Amino acid sequence: MAIKILTKNSIENTNIDGARMNYLAVGKKNGIVGGAFDEGLFYAASSNTIAFDSCELLISGHRIVINETYSQTLTNTPSSDTEYSLIAEIVVDNSSNVTFRFVIQSSSTTLTQDNMFADETGAGTYQIEIGRFTYTTNGTITNVERKVNVL
What we know:
By secondary structure, the protein is mainly beta. 7% of the residues lie in helices and 44% in strands. It has one helix at 16-25, and strands spanning 3-5, 31-32, 42-46, 49-52, 55-59, 62-66, 70-73, 82-92, 98-106, 124-135, 141-146. It has a four-stranded antiparallel β-sheet with strand order 1-6-5-2. Strands 9-8-10-11 form a four-stranded antiparallel β-sheet, with no helix packed on it. Strand 3 (42-46) and strand 4 (49-52) form a beta hairpin. The chain is globular, with a radius of gyration of 16 Å. The chain starts with a strand and ends in a 5-residue tail after the last strand.
């Protein structure tokens, strides 16, 4: 999967400061940048695989370009039908290094949304929910719903 973290690649004007300005410019909202790529279609690619199409995400001001479809195949069937969330996560360390990843977790798990601009490093973790789906006892994904807004 090809992902470009624009603040990490010095494309934004001074990394964390650029993220701070992006965050303020969109009214402190997170989501998919409208009109960029496929606008993050979220779907079941097969009976046990979820997929998230290419898009540009804005997470706490950090611009993430996803230019290939991300997919995850689930293999361990649950003992009861379980609702999961696909989470997009940004982590900034105390040296202002930015990392990004996708996480699948129970939809009842609370998202981490640190105040990343409390100091000049922008350190913290910030998660947004991309979408939800149910993984059934017969190993099938149902009820797929995108939760993230298009900005």
